[in-house]
Amino acid sequence: MSGGFELTFCGVRGSFPVPGQDTRRFGGNTSSLLLEAAGVPLVLDAGTGIIRAGRQLAARGARPIHVFLSHLHSDHIMGLPFFAPLFDPRQEVVLHYPEDGGRRSRRALEALFVPPYSPITLQGIRARLRFAPLRAAAGRVALDDGVEVAYARHDSHPCLGVLLYRVACQGRSLVYATDVESPHVFDARTRAFVAGADLLVHDSQYFENDYVGAPRAASGKSGRWPKGARRGFGHSTMTMAARNAAACGVGRLYLFHYDPRYSDAMLEEMVQLARREFPRTYLAREGKSVHIRR
Ligand SMILES: [Zn+2]
Ligand SMILES: [Zn+2]
Question: pLDDT digits over 4-16, tens only?
């Protein structure tokens, strides 16, 4: 790759993994993105998709791998104990994660590797693993070769909110905004954070009707629609994502973090509806790579 970014979607679902016939095209693994920016390997979130990212990184050799976690809900961390580079003594992994004071988040992450959840134990991690807590509500992390990762807290998600990330490199930028609920367009501070990004990956958990709990005619293959309102669950609809993309003047929008009940056919319907608000909208699909050129 000659400059710019390469993004690979490794897991695009929210909540829990859903392998099977209905999700074969867009994938059933939970949230994880692999990013290569000027040759610096980054991973955004560690859902079951990170297992695939780990296989790709293992083949690519030994630069420090930076993993950034949006928050610690299980769909964003459950793949971490199966991330192959952690078990390779030649690798260095830096884990960046929100920490709200004390070491609660670190202890929660370490627990993934020890009994009774896992037989691995912390001694079983063979890579150089460095914990890099992010304690401020906003800030930036400078990596090698001019790659910079800015972060900003968004409080709409239950528990401790999430961190939004903006990765910048060689004049190009990508914003990762998962697990955000945005019934109105982003506030001014968040709009400024997202503004002008070449690519926005945005939570698109629900159709509008499922968000508000309105009945609708079943369509798509499965016809299994969630019942009841999802207001306050901390997730967006595809229309919210599209309106934020337009308000922030981004280049392209990728819908992401789909409800596990939605089949491939339903996602095809979802993107058509989003394009009414923001034509340059696409569906994140597991295994798909996107280039953002310099
Ligand atoms: Zn999630
Ligand atoms: Zn969450």
Answer: 789 999 999 999 9
